[in-house]
Design a protein that fits this description.
The complex is a heterodimer of chains A (about 250) and B (about 260). Chain A has about 250 residues and is of the alpha/beta class. Chain A has two domains: about 170 residues, Rossmann fold, CATH 3.40.50; about 70 residues. Chain A is built from eight helices and nine strands. Chain A has a six-stranded mixed sheet with strand order 5-6-7-3-8-9, sandwiched between helices. A three-stranded antiparallel sheet of chain A has the order 2-1-4, covered by helices on one side. Chain B is mostly helical. Chain B starts with a helix and ends in a 12-residue tail after the last helix. The chains are: A alpha/beta (about 250), B mainly alpha (about 260). The structure holds adenosine-5'-triphosphate and magnesium ion. Magnesium ion binds next to helix 1 of chain A.
């Protein structure tokens, strides 16, 4: 079943930049979808339009079963420096009017899910880059949204941390069953994580083609070093090159 | 004791010693330039006259600063809520700021018809602009992704103001406040000079004028010392306030050693 779809979405910014031109995308219920494309092809713009943060110039976002609640993870951690990790994660609940006791319990729970139990009262400046990113993910998860939109959340992290957060995210997704749209510019990351990859091209920004990744879950560290994974990455790279050349 | 504290104190003592030495060796009469010891003696002997004046100047300064905070922050919030209010009012705030206070003080004194009130208005006029402009800047310097996040969770203007814009503006506001503290004192003193009258309640500026007419130069210096001390005390108090509010989270309050 379809959860959300972009239909011929175009975006022309006030300065005349045509960021998107007729981009279409289907997102299935419970799916893990990656959006892969070079820098500047409009991935962030498309994600913001899907979230309703930016209006499209043309085209539409369709929600066949009504708009669901969603969580958004930005490319940077985007934490409030004046609030502790707990305060940051509790923000969506606070804005939603959830009582203090309940929201703190749920925020502590969400921090536990991203492996930050015990860091509730730490200030953002005392956290490492990877920990800040995990706080940001916990904040997106705390409302238990049905759709999680992630904009290159691990792009700024080192490989070791990125691999661990990849595994954590997959475990969470398998356990909870929410839908993920994951923007990345890494073929390897998208093959490891997702069931399907939407390939975007720049100038004008549009969705070129799709790559299916039908490897079974759970995908573990062993999968990452397997010949199967290497072959899939090679195939995806070839398909990507083909799509780009076309 | 850090060098930050010791260095200026040692420097100050050296300068005072030099001053006293020059006055003694050159036998400068106290009505031309009193040495620091004479000034200190005058401070003690004239304390009965100077203390009430110090209190009055401080009172006007602090009241003006409080009014500047209230008006500056309220206007800044209004500006952030409505582009139209900002466009129509901000130029006038700038005009008020760039008009020299000595030029408009006589008008204010004539209109207000009350010395203390007119001093208060003058001190407020010079103090409020840094608070206004800094707070406006702070309210606008909000991470646009955080703004998007607040929008995503359906926070209206009011919640965005309380939970996002105001905390983000706090460091900017405190920076403006520190500037305004000194300006309020200057405004209070300058306006009293222009008023040129003691009235029922005389501040330190009037004591300086009066001592000048009477050629009591040591007392003039003693009053000057009190004004400087008041300025330093205000600055230190506002810096402490800023530190207490920011030390846990803001970069400006974090010592390099961590
Ligand atoms: N607010 C804006 N105003 C004007 N132009 C913009 C704006 N936001 C993005 N653009 C332009 O739109 C194009 C697409 O930007 P977008 O941020 O969506 O790219 P991206 O695919 O996310 O790139 P990256 O991988 O580097 O994050 C770029 O050319 C960019 O310069
Ligand atoms: Mg981007």
């Amino acid at each position: 079943m379809r959860l959300v779809a972009a239909r011929g979405v175009s975006k022309v910014f006030a300065n005349g930049v045509r960021a998107l031109d007729g981009a279409s995308l289907d997102v299935g219920q419970g799916e893990f979808l990656s959006v892969l494309g070079p820098s500047g092809c409009g991935k962030s713009t498309l994600l913001r339009i899907v979230a309703g943060l930016t209006p499209p110039s043309a085209g539409a976002i369709e929600w066949p079963a009504g708009k669901t609640d969603l969580g958004f993870v930005f490319q940077e951690p985007t934490l409030m420096p004046w609030a502790t990790a707990l305060g940051n994660v509790a923000l969506p609940l606070r804005l939603g009017g959830v009582a203090r006791g309940e929201r703190e319990a749920r925020a502590a729970d969400a921090l536990g899910h991203v492996g930050l139990a015990g860091f509730e009262h730490t200030w953002p400046r005392e956290l490492s880059g990877g920990m800040k990113m995990r706080v940001s993910i916990a904040r997106a998860l705390v409302t238990a949204p049905r759709l999680l939109l992630m904009d290159e959340p691990f792009a700024a992290l080192d490989e070791i941390t990125r691999h661990r957060l990849n595994a954590d995210l997959l475990a969470l997704w398998e356990r909870t069953g929410f839908t993920v749209v994951f923007v990345t510019h890494s073929v390897f990351e998208s093959v490891f994580l997702s069931q399907r990859i939407a390939v975007m091209a720049a100038r004008p920004g549009r969705v070129l083609s799709e790559i299916a990744v039908d490897a079974p879950y759970p995908r573990t560290a062993a999968f990452r070093t397997s010949a199967d994974y290497a072959a899939r990455c090679r195939l995806a790279s070839a398909q990507l090159a083909e799509a780009m050349a076309a | 004791m850090s060098a930050r504290f010791v260095a200026p104190v040692v420097m100050g003592l050296l300068m005072l010693g030099l001053w006293e030495g020059i006055v003694r060796i050159a036998e400068v009469p106290p009505y031309v330039l009193p040495g620091p010891i004479v000034v200190a003696e005058t401070l003690v002997s004239d304390w009965g006259t100077l203390a009430p004046s110090l209190w009055i100047t401080l009172e006007i300064t602090l009241e003006a600063l409080a009014a500047a905070v209230v008006v500056g922050v309220l206007l800044a919030v209004l500006f952030s809520l409505s582009r139209w209010i900002e466009l129509s009012l901000f130029p006038y705030a700038i005009i008020l700021q760039v008009t020299p206070i000595v030029a408009i003080a006589p008008l204010i004194i004539a209109w207000a018809n009350d010395v203390e009130l007119s001093l208060l208005i003058c001190a407020w006029l010079v103090a409020f602009f840094p608070i206004l402009s800094n707070t406006v800047l702070g309210l606008r310097s909000v991470d646009h992704n955080l703004l998007a996040l607040f929008e995503l969770y359906g926070a209206g203007r009011w919640k965005t103001l309380i939970h996002l814009r105001l905390p983000a503006a706090l460091p900017y506001f405190l920076g403006g406040l520190r500037i305004s503290g000194g300006l309020a004192l200057i405004g209070a003193v300058v306006a009293e000079f222009v008023a040129g009258t003691g009235g029922s309640a005389s501040g330190l500026a009037w004591r300086i004028l009066e001592a000048g007419y009477q050629l009591r130069i040591p007392r003039m210096f003693a009053a000057l010392v009190l004004i400087s001390a008041a300025g330093i005390a205000i600055y230190l108090a506002l810096s402490l306030l800023s530190y207490l509010l920011l030390w846990r989270w803001h970069e400006s309050a974090i010592s390099p050693e961590g």
